Amino acid sequence: MLLAIHGETLLHRACRNAVSAQFDPVIAVIRNDAAARNAIRDLPCLVAVPPDVGAPMSASIRAGVQALPAGYDAIVIVLGDMPAVTSAMMRAVAEIAANQPDALLVASRYGSVVAPPLLFRRCLVNELLDCRGDRGARDIVHRHHEDAAFVDCSPETLADVDTPDEWDRYVTRFASEPLVPPRERA
Question: What is the DSSP letter of 22?
Fold first, then answer.
């Protein structure tokens, strides 16, 4: 999350986009170290730390949900290792939720792949707290697929940077152009 492209770390980019999408509060689930906190010090973010840095993705989800203050209506999950996700993509998930109040969740769909940003209504919070392993919230999305709404995103924006090779491919692809997906440049 501390790798940078165009002078901005992946962590900062994800948090900045969430703030720009007008999410409030924005909770960054990060390791408990000075470098991660320093990377987002200029942003109005709350910080949650999973109990075990090496824990699976579900531990990060639980830490973020547990850090939410009372009174929220929905939770939007965004991954910092998806640097092509923009604030407009995040905002689209919230707008679909506002326009489709019966949808239990709103998921981003990149062609045939469903991935974050994902919005979960408050009624699904116990399922988020119960998720285990490295599948994150995929099982919840699958279980409630019939009650979900979807935002169609360009498959070009589905970039997940989990390995050095994926990072190298991503940087090669975007190093000479701004980190704005093709659909949002116009």
Answer: T
pLDDT tens, position by position, 16-32: 999 999 999 999 999 88
Nearest 5°: the CA angle 27, 152, 66 is: 20
Distance CA 6, CA 68 (A): 31
Please report, rounded to a whole number, the percentage of residues in the chain having pLDDT higher than 90: 62
Residue with tokens 């986009």: 17
Angle (CA) 177-180-183 rounded to 5° is 115
Ranges 3-17, 32-46, 86-100, 157-171: which has the least confidence: 157-171
33 in Cβ contact with 27 (< 8 Å)? no
Q: How distant is the alpha carbon of residue 25 from its chain centre? A: 14
- Asked whether the beta carbons of 137 and 94 are under 8 A apart, the reply is no
Cα separation, 132 vs 179, whole angstroms:
32
Instruction: Choose among 12, 39, 2: nearest CA to 179.
Output: 12
β-pair partners for 110? 113, 153
**Nearby residues of 105 by Cβ (< 8 Å), 6 or more positions away:** 118, 119, 120, 121, 124, 140, 141, 144, 147, 148, 149
User: CA-CA distance, 105 to 66, in Å (whole number)?
Assistant: 19
Q: Name the β-bridge partners of 121.
A: 74
Instruction: Supply angle C-alpha 186, 182, 160, rounded to 5.
Output: 145
